[in-house]
Design brief:
The chain is mainly alpha-helical and 168 residues long. It is elongated and about 70 Å long. Helix 5 (129-137) packs antiparallel against helix 6 (144-159). The chain has helices at residues 11-24, 29-48, 59-71, 83-102, 129-137, 144-159, 163-167.
Amino acid sequence: RRARRIDPRSFESCLTACVEDLQARWYSKALVKHAHTVLARFFSFLRARRLRDVRAVAEAHVFAYARQLASEKSAVTGELYSISTQRTHLYVLQRLFRFLEAAGVILQDPSRDLALPSWKRLPRAVLNQAHARRLVANPDPFTVRGKRDRAILELLYGTAIRVGECER
């Protein structure tokens, strides 16, 4: 299918083209919807600063948006956006600008030097065999609940799947 020409003077054209690219790459409907929401919000941020052309977006605009995102409160919870929310919003922006650069709409990606916020990672301690054996042997093997718990523990330890995967 032939790609449609992207008008850099129309934020809607850039938004539509980016969303269509995500759909063409078989991204989930939820991610496409999220990208649409995030990009619409970013484009309204640019309009408030009297920018009308995506080629005029500079690194300073992207960093200003990142700072605003970090200091803004969510309309739903009334709290500051979490680090992971900020990270996903900024990742969508980076994806937009990489797409526009690859399509030849912009010459240089203004989000190239943007470092995504990071959070402290959870400690990745691994159980040794003795601890694992004690943990798996702990549920009562004579009750239905104990058998279930033991099966879950053996599944988690033996396959290293995540708890959410086990729940599903």
